[in-house]
Design goal:
The chain is 43% helix and 15% strand. The protein is an alpha/beta fold. The protein has one domain: Alpha-Beta Complex (Spore Coat Polysaccharide Biosynthesis Protein SpsA, Chain A), CATH 3.90.550. A seven-stranded mixed β-sheet has the order 3-2-1-4-6-5-7, sandwiched between helices. Strand 1, helix 1 and strand 2 form a beta-alpha-beta unit. Helix 1 runs parallel beside helix 2 and helix 6 packs parallel to helix 9.
């Protein structure tokens, strides 16, 4: 009999009090074995609510950044013997009900990594509230990264991802950035190591309570994405 894989959802959280419970309630019952929340020194009641919801909690004593938060998430998930790790933002920007669709592709051996792509059509992305500058920059960066890496992903910049544990055990993610460019470094490293990456479309949800980096940080992120992709090309 094939052993049932242990699926753990990790939530990199910062000031997620207003959307956390809604996110948790939408995770299909029985689809995951554990839920871990890593709080990056929130100044709201995220920690108090996490305890109320009986989630596995890890707290950073100071704000370390989005990439550093994920590093803690993956380290703890691996320590808890996860076979598949789903990274989900607790701000309700991504639909938790789609988690089984991501994990099934990994369970059945089709892919090592699955992404939830918010870019199915321009109309849907913009109607879902994605700012036009984010949509067009996402399209440009994704096209460039696909061209350089030989992939054909719908989006390189999604915050909904599922990883086989073997990927996280073999990618040196602890060496990557503590900031938002961490996500790009993860995928570039996975491509370099030959892991299979797939994606499915997910709804676009931009609203005031959903987290999003501002224009200045978006420009910095875009520049670093180009830099990391070119480094991949010539390394």
């Amino acid at each position: 009999m094939t052993k049932k894989p242990k699926i753990i959802v990790v939530l990199p959280a910062y000031n997620a009090e207003k959307t956390l419970e809604k996110t948790i309630n939408d995770i299909p019952k029985g689809s995951v074995d554990e839920i871990i929340l890593v709080d990056d020194a929130s100044n709201d009641k995220t920690v108090k609510l996490t305890k109320k919801l009986n989630l596995i909690l890890h707290e950073h004593s100071f704000n370390m950044g989005y990439g550093a938060n994920q590093k803690s998430c993956y380290k703890i998930a691996l320590e808890r013997k996860a076979d598949i790790i789903v990274m989900l933002h607790p701000d309700y920007q991504y639909d938790p009900k789609l988690i089984p669709h991501l994990t099934d592709f990994i369970k059945n051996g089709y892919f090592d990594i699955m992404l939830g792509s918010r870019i199915r059509s321009r109309h849907e992305s913009l109607a879902g509230g994605m700012p036009p500058y984010k949509y067009y920059s996402n399209r440009f960066l994704t096209f460039f990264q696909n061209l350089i890496t030989g992939q054909n992903l719908g989006e390189w910049h999604t915050g909904m991802r599922a990883y086989s544990s073997k990927v996280l055990k073999n990618i040196p993610f602890k060496k990557f950035s503590n900031d938002f460019i961490f996500d790009t470094q993860m995928l570039l490293s996975a491509v370099k190591k030959g892991y299979k990456i797939g994606d499915i479309p997910v709804p676009v949800r931009y609203f005031p309570k959903a987290s999003s980096i501002n224009l200045k940080r978006s420009l910095k992120y875009g520049f670093l994405t180009l830099k990391e992709t070119l480094k991949f090309k010539f390394s």
